[in-house]
Specification:
This protein has helices spanning 2-18, 38-51, 62-74, 88-93, 139-144, 153-164, 181-194, 196-205, 213-227, 236-245, 294-305, 307-315, 333-341, 351-355, 357-372, 377-387, and strands at residues 26-30, 55-59, 82-85, 116-118, 121-132, 134-138, 171-174, 176-177, 234-235, 248-253, 267-270, 277-286, 346-349. It is α/β, with parallel strands linked by helices. The protein folds into two domains: 9-129 and 281-331, Periplasmic binding protein-like II (D-Maltodextrin-Binding Protein, domain 2, 3-Layer(aba) Sandwich); 134-253 and 356-386, D-Maltodextrin-Binding Protein, domain 2 (3-Layer(aba) Sandwich), CATH 3.40.190.10. The strands form three sheets. Strands 1, 2, 3, 4, 5, 12 and 13 form a seven-stranded mixed β-sheet that branches. Strands 7-10-6-11 form a four-stranded mixed β-sheet. Strands 8-9 form a two-stranded parallel ribbon. The longest helix has 17 residues, at 2-18.
Length: 391
């Protein structure tokens, strides 16, 4: 009898995980954890205070959701009521399983990113904007060692060499890694700076080959020389800690970094000399049609996208509001400085998140190989062409 009750208990837990919507509490799934999650959790707390609707926040990243959700959708289930993913291409692919959220965002003034609409249904809502503006450094570190942001490629190489000469420095640049995405962010920045927006968009759309001489030159003339000053891939939050502690001098990362350090006022950032564009993107909100809490989920989406909800999120730092009517004064000083620094820059959609699928995984894997074996460049570029989606 005891084993039977144990089975019933396991089934109950499985049901709670797969159909969190059966509970009165809303289950929200997003990619942020630790300090990075705190600004978003403040928004959820404000929503509960305003509506009385309780919310449970669970952490799952896009790559994990991509593995779990297709099977659950096929079974008419979902692990949460409101879900976030960075993969807009994935939202489009599984749009049939999502609720139309058009009424919830009808009056939202969107910026450069707009909702995902499939066959007239608004299935994915861009939430908070992240940008990948360049290499971050601690102002106190640069001041202590008389270092300055570079104004030319030669200045950049000289800066890397000077950083490596500082006692206690292991490498000039920390290389964050997860499944490979921080490396892809860095490479995309180099392509924008030294190949230009047209090359970047051509590679994204498949009209330019990775093995083309112009693309290879970006790698050979800029990325490969940079790699001699870059660490091997390190789990990105650990890399952040080591960089902050002074083991590395600069760190390429998105602007969410401002919400993950002890003293954001000590942060400085510079784009590669010559860059006139940066990548940007968002995490898309969707509501699975299998939730039993559609009405409450819709209320949460509406609050998340409201001016009030966006201002609360902006005040937490680490992301920029998707709404164009949020004043710079709503942000902490680090974000206000970033907004000012981005004046005149074009923001283009993140490449690997746009292409997605098997190519994205190949891109990550090949860049991890390149980081530890730069002489594999030609093989890496060939694989990226071979893996690009056909048709």
């Amino acid at each position: 009898m005891r084993s039977w009750w144990r089975v019933l208990g396991v089934l109950a837990v499985m049901g709670a995980l797969s159909l969190g919507a059966w509970a009165a509490k809303l289950v929200v799934i997003g990619p942020w954890s630790g300090d990075e999650a705190k600004p978003f959790e403040a928004v959820l707390a404000a929503f509960t205070d305003k509506t009385g609707i309780e919310v449970e926040y669970r952490v799952m990243r896009s790559e994990d959701l991509g593995k779990v959700l297709p099977a659950q959708f096929s079974a008419g289930m979902a692990p949460g009521d409101v879900i976030f993913t960075a993969w807009g291409w994935w939202v489009k692919k599984f749009a049939d399983h999502m609720v139309d959220l058009g009424p919830q965002v009808a009056d939202v003034p969107f910026g450069f990113l707009t909702p995902i609409v499939v066959e007239g249904r608004t299935v994915g809502i861009p939430y908070a904007v992240w940008v990948k503006p360049g290499f971050w450094y601690r102002k106190s570190f640069f001041d202590a060692h008389d270092l300055r942001a570079p104004s030319s490629w030669e200045d950049f190489l000289a800066l890397l060499a000077r950083i490596e000469a500082v006692p206690g420095i292991e490498k000039a640049a920390a290389s964050g890694d997860e499944v490979g995405w921080p490396l892809s962010d860095t490479v995309e920045h180099f392509i924008l700076a030294y190949g230009g927006v047209n090359m970047f968009l051509g590679l994204t759309e498949g009209t330019i080959k990775w093995t083309s001489p112009a693309v290879r030159a970006v790698f050979a003339d800029h990325i490969i020389p940079y790699l001699q000053y870059a660490s091997e891939p390190i789990e990105w939050t650990s890399a952040k800690d080591l960089w902050w502690q002074g083991k590395y001098g600069i760190y390429f990362m998105g602007n969410w970094l401002t919400g993950m350090v002890e003293d954001p006022a000590d942060l400085g950032v510079f784009a590669l000399p010559g860059a006139k564009a940066v990548t940007g993107g968002t995490d898309y909100i969707f509501v699975p049609k299998y939730t039993k809490n559609v009405a409450d989920a819709a209320k949460l989406v509406e609050f998340l996208m409201s001016k009030e909800g966006q201002e609360i999120r902006a005040a937490g730092g680490g992301k920029l509001a998707i709404r164009t009517d949020i004043s710079p004064e709503a942000y902490p000083p680090a974000e206000r400085a970033l907004i000012q620094a981005l004046q005149g820059f074009v923001i283009v959609p993140d490449m690997d998140d746009t292409i997605g699928g098997e190519w994205q995984a190949a891109f990550w894997d090949q860049l991890k190989l390149l980081w530890v074996k730069p002489d594999a460049l030609d093989d890496v570029l060939r694989v990226l062409d071979e893996k690009y989606p056909k048709g």
